[in-house]
Design goal:
single chain; mainly alpha; 3 helices; 0% strand
Length: 80
């Protein structure tokens, strides 16, 4: 994979996370789930940009960690 391929994958994971967080918010709004049911997702539904940034960093670090374990060289951290 090229550096651009890796960036695409990271961006897709970020998008997926945003979609899931929106779904969680909708389920809470319709009282299908309560906030306490998904404590692990609290950071995902927060509107605080610092939490979103932390989440994006976590996704990228996790991806790079898996790549390292699998022996895939993803190069340096790509700039946004």
């Amino acid at each position: 994979m090229t550096e651009k391929d890796h960036r695409l994958m990271i961006e897709m994971f970020k998008h997926q996370t945003r979609v899931i967080s929106t779904l969680v918010a909708v389920l809470e709004g319709r009282e299908i789930i309560e906030q306490g049911d998904l404590d692990a997702y609290d950071a995902l539904v927060a509107a605080d940009e610092s939490q979103v940034s932390e989440l994006e960093n976590h996704v990228e670090e996790t991806y790079r960690g898996f790549a390292k374990v699998l022996g895939v060289n993803v190069g340096s951290t790509p700039a946004d």
